[in-house]
Amino acid sequence: MDGHGAAKFRDASLLATSADRPWTLIAAEIRSHGAGEIGAFTPRNAEITQILRDDQSAVSSRSSGGVRQEVSATPGTTWLCPADIQEEATRLSADIPSVLHVYIPRHSFLLGEVGTLGFRAQDLRYQAQVDNPRVLDLLRRIRCELVGEGAAGGLRMDALAVDLIATLAADHAEQARPDVLHRGGGLLDQRRLERVLAYINDNLERDMTLTDMAEVACVSVFHFARAFQSSLGITPHAYLSARRLDRAKQRLAHGVDSLGDIALACRFSSQANFTRAFTRAVGVSPGRYRQATAAT
After folding, report:
1. Which of 112, 164, 172, 251 could form a Cys-Cys staple with 220, CB 3.0–4.6 A?
2. In this structure, how many other beta carbons lie within 10 angstroms of the beta carbon of residue 146?
3. Which residue has the higher pLDDT, 142 or 117?
4. Rounded to the nearest 10 degrees, what angle do helices 190-202 and 221-232 cross at?
5. For residues 126 and 237, is the Cβ–Cβ distance under 8 A?
6. Residue 171 above 80 pLDDT?
């Protein structure tokens, strides 16, 4: 998101990044931070930071607008930082070898029902030691996707971003907002649903976003994510992932394409990621699946 991490954390080693992923509503990095000072910074995006590993019982101290927050940086410790805040230097008392940074740009706060609340990237609470179970679970899922990409990674991240923003709007706005988490998505009527499913099946070998699907259905992104699941009992990214794996099975069984070509056609960034996801879903590796189907 406009080089946020590179600009703010110039001396921190980059361990993983979503920069090369088809993520449109959110970005994430994992960085290793050394002891010392992180310079003053005014972010353009909202940011969530979470400690993944800390070997030396570090203490983190940050401040903005006269508000000072000093906490022990233990695994799971989580901070929120709104956009446009004038954050003073952050100090770390010891090295922290693994930290997750999630960036949410301004445009992602304008989605559907969330956008109607007037909740902006600037309205996020400046908060340390976040213990909201929903936020922590969503961060866990974002981290898992960052380190192990699935067949519908971009679409999955769109859905997680919508869920995360809705949770932040309900529970972590600087000023209280209406609770949007429990608004039902209703159902997609049969005509809209069939149009979306046809679009998915016709575009399995290209990147797809939640916004693309919502536009095909002619509804908001926020509404679409919930209505699709209410209609089929499965999330859009899970449906797309299953269809892409079905396509991979067909190509393995009836074609001569290499595993690398099939991986790219099914929108995996590498053959290794494809092999892991296929084995996890099917129970055997792509190579063994090809051998087994060739023998029948």
Report:
1. 112
2. 22
3. 142
4. 100
5. no
6. yes
Looking at the predicted structure, is the pLDDT value of residue 77 above 80?
A: yes
Q: Convert the chain into a string of H (helix), E (strand) and C (coil).
A: CCCHHHHHCCCCEEEEECCCCCCCCCEEEEEEECCEEECCECCCCEEEEEEEECCCCCEEEEEECCEEEEEECCCCCEEEECCCCCECCEEECCCEEEEEEEEECHHHHHCHHHHHCCCCHHHECCEECCCCHHHHHHHHHHHHHHHCCCCCHHHHHHHHHHHHHHHHHHHCECCCCCCCCCCCCCCCCHHHHHHHHHHHHHCCCCCCCHHHHHHHHCCCHHHHHHHHHHHHCCCHHHHHHHHHHHHHHHHHHHCCCCHHHHHHHCCCCCHHHHHHHHHHHHCCCHHHHHHHHHCC
CB count within 10 Å of CB 108 equals 24
Nearest to 152 by CA among 58, 29, 21, 254: 21
Q: Which residue in this structure is represented by tokens 């949007």?
A: 180
- Rounded Cα–Cα distance for residues 295 and 252 (Å): 12
Structure tokens at 76: 């799971």
pLDDT of residue 137: 96
